[in-house]
Amino acid sequence: MSEFIKKLSTRALASERYKEATNELFRSYIYKTIGMEAEINREHVKQLITIAQYFYKVNDSKFRKEGAALLSMLLDVCGNSYPEIIAIANRVFSSSGDFPNIKLIEKNYPELSFKYSFYSEAEMDFRKELNTVDELSFPLTDFQRTLWESLTLDEDVITVAPTSAGKTHIILSYLIRRMIDSDGAFAAIIVPTRALISEVANKLYEIAKEQNYEKEIEICTVPQDDGYADKTFFVMTQERLLEALQAGDLSFNYLFIDEAHNITDESRGVLLHLTIDKLMEDSFPQVIISMPSASYQDSFSTVFEDLEFTKEITSISPVAKILMEVKPVGRNLVIERFNTQDSITIPKGFKDKHLSDIALKLGRGHSNIIYRNQTDHCENIAQNIADKVTEYDTPNELEEAANYVEEFIHDRFSLANNLRKGVAFHYGPLPSSLRIMIENLVKEGFIQFVACTSTLAEGVNLPAKNLFLYKPMQSKGMGAPERLDDVKINNITGRAGRMLEHFAGNIFIVEPDEWQVKDYFDDNDNDEEKIPTYFKAINEDLSSVFQALAGVYAHDAENQYKFYTIANKLIKELAEGKLYKTLEATELDLSLEDIDALERAVKNAHSSLKVAPFTLEASPTIGYIQQNKLFNFISNIDNLNDWTLPHPKSKELYNVLVKVCEKLVEFGVFTPTGEYYMSYMCVIAAKWVQGESLKEIISEQIEWMDKNKKKKDDEVNPNKAVRDVIKVINNDIRFRMANALRCYQVLLTNVISLKQLDITSIKLHSFIEIGASDDRMIELINIGLSREAAKEVNEKLAYNIDVDSLHRLLELLKSDVLVGLHPITRKEILSMSK
Q: Which of 77, 294, 401, 670 has the fewest CB atoms within 10 Å of its CB?
């Protein structure tokens, strides 16, 4: 029967009557999108709804996706005109286990009720019961149900699903249940970015609160020296988790690696590999690996060589994707549905062909994301759109947001006035408080247009009805831009459409003929299998690995951290008698001669060590030669008191920072990006770690730029000042400087111990990475607050009030002790508990 339906569906796709009907539907869909009246012939509706049902029955994702596109367009265009469509859609969604869309039907059409045959009613009730589990309050999709079943069988699971398939919610719900039912357990959740820490931590709290368990668990986002609660979630980047692992004995019951394709990331993939290895030394957790592409499903075969994974894989999302090419031609816009003959030509209504005009024409009245490759491009497109929004009644929520930008960041930052028009931009070098604020405003529907960089590809949950793509590329510093990885472009397009709000998301491919890369959306059934960066780099650039093992790889080279981390991992494996695992790994593709040469190079490096291997491991991104030099220098210092790291609040902080960092640069341990003077970085670092506000730091940066401009009449760009400050903080201070100071602290402590001296040196790197030195402010950041929100709350509270949990913070928010808190800060706290 299924083969017959597939043949029938194939014939339907090729028929002229089908093409005529879909073209009429598509035209009506575009008219509806731009706010015009849309009608469609009743006979065509009958044909299309019948064919859509056939497509859903074919066991082929191509047909299923086409059926979902048809059904979503029919619901959008004529759901109100032909209620029969809604009844049929309800039946189709039930048969395919798509219960989120059934819930959306109930939300959109609450006045409608359907009468089906006894058999159909019974079948639908059975499917709903089958996809409902006692522990969760909502019916699951088929994919979610099988994922839940595999998890509850204590199996190690690799799950592959597109963005918006709901996999993360199921995994977090499962972990919450297991932690609550335990006598005590630790769960590690590794996320790729700091921005995702807050998002996942908030989601955990939200799920726990729904089940009245929020007081029974602890969510930890920064390493601690004074121990952890019995039931703790460690929601951390690989850098933070590695530090927590090195600080003491930790054994984990659960390991969840989110966005796990980052094991192949060029810059941080090796560090993720190292962190997993370290965690597995003393733990036997249930391992859960989540990724958006099946190309990465075997990337962990050697990392977890003794585990057998159950794989739960789907390419289907409850939110359909409608891809459209948009081409300005003369006075018109030509819009074509991708890989079909569906096409419509509409008047532009504007001059030229600017992306802002296209986004306004097709996106007005909807939520929209405009992807841009660079931060300044995001600012420019947001400004262009805001300038063209001439009549707009700014709601109080956006006025509050604009006021927050002016009060806490800078009054000339263009984001403030953009917000007053319902427009924003979102990128990496944006203060975390603003990122959280913008994401909340988008979700609440107050921001209609947001321009984004590839932060969308890093798991940030920022969905919208429409996504506009124009020449997407990956910026490479001073080099030529490169093609975005398929997994990134899929993650970006996955943000089109929001589950439980849209049946489909629109992806507008703008002026595709001008794109440098034109194969992003080609069907490719033979995706290349990905392997971890650790093995890929050894296979493809063995000479650089040899240079790193010899300590001569250029310290200012773009990939220095990657190759020195690889070298350190190889040395660590040799010291532990595990090098054979790498040399015999199936992912390694070297000749016998190259394997022998690699083994000799690792042994030579190991024999040259002057620091213990476990000490080397504490700073995995810094080469052992550099650590040897630094160790020798520290060992020969006559008075180590002059070189200890002070508390962040010390008056000597800046002077010591400059003195130590200059030595770290000299020995190749600290390699700044090269954009800033050492004195400037140390000034910013001192202000940052001592809790000075971003507005003060940014204002001083603008004053400095004004004094040092090349021409007297040049205007200082406050947006650039904000970006520069956040970039130096995130890249040079929180990452490079913090890593170098961690290495210095470990070696200094080692020398102090060897000399049996009674000297204390502070772990300054931990304070710098967090951005605070006040204990309560650190507690607030650990709960999940942005630094600026934590600073404001901390300043409002009396010194003797402790805040050790989100629950406690919410209690304080309800009392009168936080009166005067900015409304945006208040909303950030409340958004964590939704």
A: 294
